[in-house]
Amino acid sequence: MKHRSPSEQHHGKKPRVPAAAASASPQDGMEDKAPSNPRELTQNPLKKIWMPCKNGLPEKHISQRKVCMTNCPTLIVTVGLPARGKTYISKKLTRYLNWIGVPTREFNVGQYRREFVKIYKSFEFFRPDNEEGLKIRRQCASAALNDVRQYLTEEGGQVAVFDATNTTRERRETIIQFAEQNGFKVFFVESVCEDPDVIQENIVVSVKLGSPDYTNCNTEEAVEDFMKRIKCYENSYETLDEVLDRDLSYIKIMDVGQRYLVNRVLDHIQSRIVYYLMNIHITPRSIYLCRHGESELNVKGRIGGDSGLTPRGKEFAKKLSQFIQAQSISDLKVWTSQMKRTIQTAEALSVPYEQWKVLNEIDAGVCEEMMYEEIQDHYPLEFALRDQDKYRYRYPKGESYEDLVQRLEPVIMELERQENVLVICHQAVMRCLLAYFLDKTAEELPYLKCPLHTVLKLTPVAYGCKVESISLNVDAVNTHRERPEVGIKTHTLSRHTTSTDPLFARISFHVLSALCKHSCS
Amino acid sequence: ACSSVPQFCNSPTVIVMVGLPARGKTYISKKLTRYLNWIGVPTKMFNVGQYRREAVKIYKNFEFFKPDNEEAMRIRKACAAAALKDVSAYFTKEQGQVAVFDATNTTRERRAVIISLAKEKGYKVFFVESICDDPEIIAENIKQVKSGSPDYVDRDIDEAMEDFVQRIECYKASYMPIDDEKDRKLSYIKIFDVGSRYLVNRVQDHIQSRIVYYLMNIHVTPRSIYLSRHGESELNLLGRIGGDSGLSPRGLKYANALADFIRSQKITDLKVWTSHMKRTIQTAETLGVQYEQWKALNEIDAGVCEELTYEEIQENFPEEFALRDQDKYRYRYPKGESYEDLVHRLEPVIMELERQENVLVVCHQAVMRCLLAYFLDKPADELPYLRCPLHTVLKLTPIAYGCKVESYFLNIEAVNTHRERPTNVNINRDTEEALQTVPDHV
Predict the structure, then answer these.
(1) Half-sphere exposure for B332 (CA within 13 Å, toward CB)
(2) Membrane-spanning residues where (chain A) (predicted)?
């Protein structure tokens, strides 16, 4: 079979590999090194990661498996007429990438245009013969690209989503050159759709749900204007071409996901993006998230473990069954973890359910089944470290929220594929899933409120997600532990001074004040 | 009613290959079958060429495949029908979930037959078409694979090549690729030029989505994958399982020997992966190159048995110990994992190994067994007993339809950590019987 050498992966034209990425990898220079004495290893107290160190201090070089394996940042460029879902895709993709840990930001050129041209008059702005309009639009695109460059080179961004129509080959060529100059990889996402119903629906969404352009018109006028706007682009639209654009990396999404054309996926992150885009859909549906009913360990104030439901927990399970029936959901899938308390809860529903091991609660390692007071007693340093960075903190011989997100990714992917689903899970797990749907940051995630005996109904709407919180009126202990209010450095009750270095800080022991009455996980 | 494994598909799925000869259909079929079985989806491949070889004992020449050869046509149709019958039997009597129907299936007529059979029986159909017109790739395919085919066992390479080229011509005239317009209701993926472009239409369910993702990540660029365990650890010496100890002096020696070995292999662009456990990282440190730590590569979690010796496990958890011997693949340690869980968590590693080229994976015994089982197509009952001794590097190189394995013992002594299945696996067995196969330790 043909050997594709890394630099010669395409037939014909040379690939547009950014100069910055083509550097030789460190491994190539291995030949002449003498056998080295292994460096000392030290374990980061927060994340429990083993890293090489010198004189007790960690060396810079740690290579954690990150999702984005490329050294060069990636620029995702949307392509398509208005009302083809480009902004929907941009926002969703950005949310997903951030959740899995790839710093991503979207740049919507329309927004730049709105800031420039304070008041939108009519579609005439978009007429191809409107020189003034064209000039402004070009400037806005440039301004956006400038911000892209800053985000990717100076602000630690890994992926930028450039959301605009980008319907001419000329515009795309400009972007490609920009990327090449800056050492970014480019991946195009084109949305092609001719279904008039879908387009109509999209327009209504853009228009009704508060596009700033149409705040002062009624819906009918707005829709009419929008359709004329689309017409302005149609004549000059050059779709990505199988032949002319054969050296570009892209996915062409046709008819809202019935069909995809995928060309030259270059690396891991592009492969993940393609997989994600091919799994999402827009069929209306709802996702129900709830925790298991109150458990025996919950009432004892102990975290983790695998206990059964209390009588109140069983009451919740019954009420949940009634609630679900009342919702009259068609074709509901029910998922649980493999822990007794979620399964007991699902059993009350008397419908088939699937057990997922990856939905198990966060593993608290040596702290499993302990009360917060006991953790404070036996592992005060650990307890404090957790409060310092609850998202990245890993329990000794256990997991972190960051680990949880990674193990929940297949659940999210399958949730995207599915329609109506009820997920019966656990506090930390539910926080992770919720953070994905509501686009919460890593800092907020571990403190999201997910009380027992409450169902969250999530319904995708426009660019986001509607949340309805339904308490089933069965009492339960509170297991939510707030972020301790006082900072580590300056707390008045602290008994030790601290250094800011998270690796070797001696931490002040004030956390008792942050414990809630019934301290549970 | 519940299931403990996420249901990938309720109705069985028939994957139907489409394409002229020498387009990689059998390569894809075998690889896909291997992957699906590894992730736990019972899959079987049905190669119509094999049925034909059984019906027509001796292959004379390409004339058999001429479109006007009525006798042959009859035989070929019968073979396809027989294969389809076996597909049905696989689904209904053997609990198969996926069948890969490997044949050219180059006419709409033939595909229509399959579609109507599937409809009648309630099977889903997913087409995988491989399209390639690069004469170099095709010539290379023919050379690598066809010259070794039972059809050409008595002929030299050039004869075989010539005859095969004529064979392909026989199919070309009647070849009707899947049509994007006429076949827009079908579910399929078209692979162009060994993966530089794909067209995907109407993915119906989870398993088809996983298949598409897999097919889009594999490549055929030559490369090698090196698998090794960490050097001997302190806990290894004591005969204790799990834990997070450092390397023993011999283990450190191995790390240095590994560095020498890797250097001597002169590998271009080698990626090095370790787990998050100290012993694999210490081993990789001596290589003096960048390495990535994957939590997914951590050793199997032995739960309550972590850091115990087998003797202690027998003493404290004799029933667990016996249950493990009864079904080592599915057995889950209390508060720990099973090999089955391990496979599930290693799937992203396999996917990334498929995407990569030269990689060295420094891992652990159970993990290495799972990865090896994937590359060497070992079933679940053999997987937990694959031999992965310390201080030995396995070099895996894909060739033809399989994988060449070269084993390098780097001449540094180490304890044996391999425990064979004892004769008596009954929970009533006595201590001696339970500990029959425990390897020596300090």
Answers:
(1) 10
(2) none
pLDDT at position A261 over 80: yes
- Give the tokens for residue B245: 């100890």
Residue B432 among known ligand-binding residues: no
DSSP 3-state of B200: strand
CB contact under 8 A, A1 and B220: yes
Give yes or no: A361 in active site.
Answer: yes
- Give the residue from A311, A305, A409 showing the smallest Cα distance to A359: A409
Give the mutation candidate from A9, A65, A408, A418 for the B interface (greatest B CB count, under 10 A). Answer: A65
From the candidates A106, A190, A292, A315, give the one annotated as an active-site residue. A292
CA atoms within 13 A on the CB side of B121: 20
C-alpha A180/C-alpha A341 separation (Å) is: 54
Could you tell me if A514 and A488 are in contact, meaning their C-beta atoms sit under 8 angstroms apart? no
Residue of B197, B266, B274 to mutate, testing the A interface (most A Cβ within 10 Å of its Cβ): B197
Unique residue bearing structure tokens 């960490």: B230
Backbone angles phi, psi at A199, to 5 degrees: -65, -45
Structural tokens at position A256: 């809202």
% of chain A exceeding 70 in pLDDT: 82
CB B347 within 8 A of CB B39: yes
Per DSSP, the three-state class of A255 is: coil
Q: What percent of chain A has pLDDT over 90?
A: 70
A295 is in an annotated binding site: yes
- Residue B380 amino acid letter: A
d(CA B152, CA B173): 24
List B360's β-bridge partners, or say none. B226, B272
Condensed to tens digits (0 to 9), the pLDDT of residues B226-249 reads: 999 999 999 999 999 999 999 999
Q: What backbone torsions phi and psi does residue A262 show, to the nearest 5 degrees?
A: -120, 125
What is the chain B residue with the closest CA to A51? B281
The answer for residues whose C-beta is within 8 angstroms of residue A410's C-beta and 6 or more apart is A358
Kindly state the DSSP code that residue A324 receives in the 8-state scheme: H
- List pLDDT tens digits, range A42-94: 888 888 888 887 766 666 555 555 555 556 899 999 999 999 999 999 999 99
Work out the pLDDT band at B187, boundaries 50, 70, 90.
very high
Environment class of B165 (CB within 10 Å of its CB; exposed 0-12, middle 13-18, buried 19+)? middle
Residues of B in contact with A349 (CB under 8 A): none
Contacts of A61 in chain B (CB under 8 A): 290
On whether A292 is known to bind a ligand per the annotation, the reply is yes
Give which of B274, B52, B282 is closest to B167, Cα–Cα: B52
Query: pLDDT category, A504, cuts 50, 70, 90?
Result: very low
Q: Collapsing DSSP states into helix, strand and coil, what is residue A104? A: strand
User: How sure is the predictor about B143, in pLDDT bands with cuts at 50, 70 and 90?
Assistant: confident
Q: What residues form DSSP beta bridges with B401?
A: none
Is A355 close to B3, i.e. CB distance below 8 A?
Answer: yes
CA dihedral B179, B181, B182, B187 (to 10 degrees): 70
* Among candidates A1, A258, A358 on the partner chain, residue whose Cβ is nearest the Cβ of B140: A1
Alpha-carbon gap: B356 to the closest alpha carbon of chain A (Å) = 9
Chain-chain contact of A354 with B201 (C-beta, under 8 angstroms): no
A488 vs A140: CA distance, rounded Å? 44
Closest by CA to A166, choosing from A120, A122, A210, A110, is A110
Q: Which of A192, A185, A188, A228 is nearest to A207 (CA)?
A: A228
Q: Is residue B1 scored above 60 in pLDDT?
A: no
Q: How far apart are CA B197 and CA B182, in angstroms?
A: 21
Q: How far is it, in rounded angstroms, from Cα B64 to Cα B71?
A: 9
Q: State whether B209 and A278 contact (CB < 8 Å).
A: yes
Could A39 and B285 be called an inter-chain contact, meaning their C-beta atoms sit closer than 8 Å? yes
Radius of gyration, alpha carbons of chain A:
26
